[in-house]
Amino acid sequence: MGEYPQLGQVDSDGGRLFSTIYSRVTPVYISVENQMTPLSSLFETVIFWVILLGVFVTDGIFVRRHEGFKEKGKRKKELFSPLVLLAWLAAAILIGYVGIGALPDWLFYPGEILFVVGYAFQIYSITLLGRYYSTLVEVQPNHKVIESGPYRFIRHPNYLGQMVGAVGLGMALQSWVSLLVLLVIGGGFFAYRIRNEEAFLVAEIGGYADYMKRTKRLVPFIF
Known about the structure:
Elements: H1 7-35, H2 42-67, E1 74-75, H3 84-98, H4 108-129, E2 138-139, H5 157-172, H6 176-204, H7 208-214
Antiparallel strand pairs: 1-2
Helix pairs in contact: 2-4, 3-6, 4-5, 5-6
């Protein structure tokens, strides 16, 4: 008959086996866990989501407020709905959480500041437009060209604010891939929207062509 190990030997061998497995599995678990968030601490994770939700809820309230107190105007059909921006943001956040293309941790706080400043500027731009603001390419009855505030220098401060906010979000996610997605897809969408919108406004609003000659699209005195 074969010999069986003593009880103490089983405990000893089992303990060594458990220690070996634990020492090999634990780093893998930690590595996977770290890859599922671009943020370095729970505190930063809470800050990220509080600011993200706070900004978008506030932005949504202002958009809804200005969309709800106006007549239905003349609209131009578009190939892409503004809802594509939600998918754009969700994809960038997912990429950041997977941990693709990591950037330095210190970019988190400057990114959050830039995100808030960008969307604050967008909200300010919406309030200046008042009842003429729309998420669609649309003109209201007796539509007038607004030239107060940043509209004195640029025609689309609303889009500029969103792009600045997108850069901040990519920095806060600490992922250059997320930042690239935000810039490429966002830049493409806004380039299409600006071209489509300006052609429509020139055709529908008297004086808009002259306004275009006095202003730049997004960057004062440059572009």
